[in-house]
Specification:
- The complex is a heterodimer.
- Chain A is of the alpha+beta class.
- Chain A is about 55% helix and about 20% strand.
- Chain A has 3 domains: about 210 residues, Up-down Bundle (Multidrug efflux transporter AcrB transmembrane fold), CATH 1.20.1640; about 80 residues, Alpha-Beta Plaits, CATH 3.30.70; about 120 residues, 2-Layer Sandwich (Gyrase A, domain 2), CATH 3.30.1360.
- In chain A, strands 3-4-2-12 form a 4-stranded antiparallel β-sheet.
- In chain A, helix 11 packs antiparallel against helix 12.
- The longest helix of chain A has about 55 residues.
- Chain B is of the alpha+beta class.
- Chain B has 2 domains: about 220 residues, Multidrug efflux transporter AcrB transmembrane fold (Up-down Bundle), CATH 1.20.1640.10; about 70 residues, Alpha-Beta Plaits (2-Layer Sandwich), CATH 3.30.70.
- Chain B has a 4-stranded antiparallel β-sheet with strand order 2-3-1-4.
- The chains are: A alpha+beta, B alpha+beta.
- The interface between A and B is large, with 74 and 69 residues.
């Protein structure tokens, strides 16, 4: 008995600990709940990669470099926590295609998102503020180290691969020659005239390609980038500057945008519904099953806390469907308790003592509990496989809920019931253990 | 047990419900959403007054939108379903919808390419088949122990019949819902149906398990009891828990329907109908069918 009571106390303490963990991670913002695009607002774009020109052995490499390129571009635009991933798909539609999935939280203008992905690389020119060229340039230090020059990639007319013939550099080194349009040529001439001796940075998508010194004024509107290229590298850069920087062409096949307003409303409604769902189930359990119902409600609270903590730890990306699954799972979590209590009541009516009845009630209800959870798990696993990200969110939460609720409903409520150590000999205790209209 | 005694009344009621669902399905048909057909779904919300549909249709036509359907949604919004949008069409959405002093916002925009639509449709069908197959295996496993006077496979067959019932009712309901509110079959609907399948089969198995447990106890104690009485007694013993386990789920679903996110409202409603049908069938259809089958087999033997 003492042992049972200690276990019950331990469970309460653990519950309090989990509650504190969930509360503090959300309030401090150190580890908030991860929200899917339909809750946070944002855009998902799915592209099909055109791999006709790529040999089968190079597909994986091309897709990886495509992902890197897009990721760099997305990061440069300051989108927080973007997801860029590749996926092999289409098998079930009778074709086979490589896809690129881009998720942009907070970008709620589809057009803007598409433009962001689809544009040609950004070529920038910047002047070094100091005297000595820095050893390392990161995206955070670039603005401290460099000041933007008036001339930009828009003023570029063409880029071309050449081999260095001039006296200054390494003979036959591959270089990229930039030719500016007339407006650009004038600006470039002025820039080079006024800044002789300064370092001049050439950036592509925010990444420095070369940082040469301006030796003299260049009036004819051509600049040479000699960044220690291989012939292949220089050719690629020239092509990227001319045609856009993607290693393979991509075509937009699906978009999904949810406004921040809609997402915010869904979160609010979802939280409210979850709260009222728990309250409704708790009221029913206490009214119908009385004392055991109250203990089942404690187990339900613990279930809610454990699941919320798991959402944070795993972490589970919550979607509207995931919240629905959570609310549904609250209703199902007490199933095991109902099975047990009904069985316990039968055993009590059969004339057993409370202790025996509880014990037998748990033992006899177990096969039913197991079976009901198996059939729900079957659905959860298949749904997870079926899943688009929306349904995966549902399946994961649903499956998690089924497993955790089985644990909390059985172990927690049994420990609590045993710890109370009631004997159902007297009318009052019988009343406490009764249910519904039975006295 | 009144359910067993008046089982023909319940068979008739079940028949009417199933027939109504089938008629609803035949008359209204299911409308498949952009998830499965490919195309575009736009949710527009207004800041200010929502303009009337008729002039809006003209504006859409003038702007070159084709093959679309427009429906009012919520208090101050519209739902537009159409083919794939061009870049220009996508760009002018909110401008085209802003009309009569109402400023339109694109609340949600979903475009699904044809390949992805076909892929998702096939995936949904495979998932449905897989769930049915797994549940079938599960039933076969649950009823593997042969018992008298009815062999295992008949329990399994009846469980399967109730399962078919549990799917037909929400599907028929959804067809009517589609007619009334423009609800379309999407991945969430498929999810709801699969969840109903997983949840409902279990209630039926519990009653049947109790029938067999009582039969075994009778056999062990050499007690003679009419099969209808055993079935009725078993049903009486499991009746409350069947209803209560469903009730708690229905409570949460009602909450989800009334105050939950708008995007899961149809989903909650489908589950509500499906789980109600599942509970109904496990109480009012499964065991009565078992009794009728037993009677029929006994009469045939004579």
């Amino acid at each position: 008995m003492l042992q049972k009571r200690l276990t019950a106390l331990l469970i309460l303490l653990v519950g309090a600990g989990i509650a504190w963990f969930v509360y503090s991670s959300e309030v401090s913002g150190a580890r908030p709940f991860k929200l899917g695009l339909d809750l946070s607002g944002g855009t998902q774009l799915v592209y099909r990669a055109d791999l006709k020109a790529i040999a089968a052995t190079d597909v994986a490499d091309s897709m990886a470099s495509l992902r890197d390129t897009i990721e760099r571009r997305v990061n440069m635009f300051g989108v927080s926590e973007p997801i860029v991933q590749t996926e092999h798909g289409g098998t079930l539609a009778g074709t086979s295609e490589e896809r690129l999935i881009v998720e942009l939280p907070g970008v709620t203008d589809t057009q803007k998102a598409i433009a962001l992905i689809g544009q040609t690389p950004v070529l920038e020119f910047r002047l070094l503020r100091g005297e000595t060229p820095p050893g390392e340039i990161s995206s955070t230090t670039v603005n401290q180290l460099f000041e933007p020059a008036a001339i930009t990639g828009k003023d570029l007319a063409s880029a071309q691969l050449q081999f260095n013939q001039s006296a200054g550099g390494i003979p036959n080194e591959p270089v990229v020659v930039l030719k500016f349009n007339s407006e650009g040529a004038r600006m470039f001439a002025a820039l080079t005239r006024d800044n002789v001796g300064r370092y001049f940075g050439i950036f592509l998508d925010g990444v420095p390609i070369s940082v040469p010194v301006i030796r003299e004024s260049i009036p004819d509107g051509t600049a040479v980038i000699s960044g220690g290229f291989t012939a292949e590298g220089a050719k690629e850069l020239a092509r990227n500057l001319n045609y856009g920087a993607l290693p393979v062409p991509i075509e937009l096949i699906s978009t999904q945008t949810v406004s921040a307003t809609l997402g915010g409303e869904a979160v609010q409604d979802g939280i409210l519904a979850a709260l009222w769902g728990v309250i409704a189930v708790a009221i029913f359990m206490v009214l119908w099953y009385r004392l055991p119902g109250l203990l089942a409600t404690c187990a339900l609270m613990l279930y809610v806390l454990v699941v919320l903590a798991l959402f944070l730890v795993i972490p589970v990306t919550l979607t509207a469907a995931g919240i629905a699954a959570f609310i549904l799972s609250v209703g199902m979590a007490v199933d095991a308790n109902i099975l047990i209590f009904e069985r316990t009541r039968e055993e009590l009516q059969g004339g057993k003592s409370a202790k025996e009845a509880i014990h037998d009630g748990f033992a006899r209800a177990w096969p039913s509990i197991r079976d009901s959870n198996i059939s729900s798990m079957i659905t959860a696993v298949i749904l997870f496989w079926f899943g688009t990200s929306l349904i995966k969110g549902f399946a994961l939460v649903f499956g998690l809920g089924v497993l955790v609720s089985m644990l909390t409903a059985i172990t927690v409520s049994r420990t609590f019931l045993m710890a109370l150590g009631l004997e159902a000999k007297h009318g009052f205790t019988r009343l406490l253990f009764g249910s519904g209209t039975h006295l | 047990m009144f359910i067993i005694r008046h089982r023909n009344v319940f068979f008739a009621l079940t028949g009417i419900l199933v027939l109504a669902s089938l008629v609803s399905l035949a008359v209204f048909g299911l409308k498949f959403g952009t998830d499965f057909t490919g195309g575009t779904l736009v949710e527009i919300r207004y800041d200010g007054t929502r303009p009337d549909a008729a002039p809006l249709t003209e504006t859409l036509n003038d702007a070159g939108f084709k093959n679309y359907s427009l429906r009012e949604s919520g208090d101050n919004g519209y739902t537009l379903r159409t083919q794939s949008l061009t870049d220009a069409e996508r760009g002018m959405l909110s401008a085209v919808f802003s009309y009569q002093g109402g400023t339109a916002f694109v609340d949600q925009l979903t475009e699904v390419g044809p390949t992805i639509g076909v892929e998702l449709r096939n995936k949904a069908l495979i998932a449905l088949a897989l769930v049915l197959l797994c549940i079938l295996l599960f039933i076969a496993f649950a009823f593997r122990k042969v018992s008298q006077p009815i062999s295992s496979w008949i329990y399994g067959l009846i469980a399967l019949i109730t399962l078919v019932h549990d799917v037909i009712i929400p599907v028929g309901f959804f067809a009517a819902l589609g007619f009334l509110t423009g609800a379309h079959v999407d991945t969430l609907f498929v999810t709801a149906i699969l969840t109903v399948l997983g949840f409902s089969i279990h209630d039926t198995i519990v009653v049947f398990d109790r029938v067999r447990e009582n039969l075994r106890v009778n056999h062990d104690h050499n007690r003679k009891e009419d099969f209808a009485d055993v079935a009725g007694r078993s049903l009486g013993q499991t009746f409350v828990r069947s209803i209560n386990t469903s009730l708690t789920v229905l409570f949460t679903l009602l909450v989800l329907y009334f105050i939950g996110p708008a995007s899961t409202r149809d989903f909650a409603l489908t589950l509500l109908v499906g789980i109600t049908a599942g509970t109904y069938s496990s109480i009012f259809l499964a065991t009565p069918l078992l009794v009728t089958t037993e009677r029929w087999l006994k009469n045939r033997k004579k």
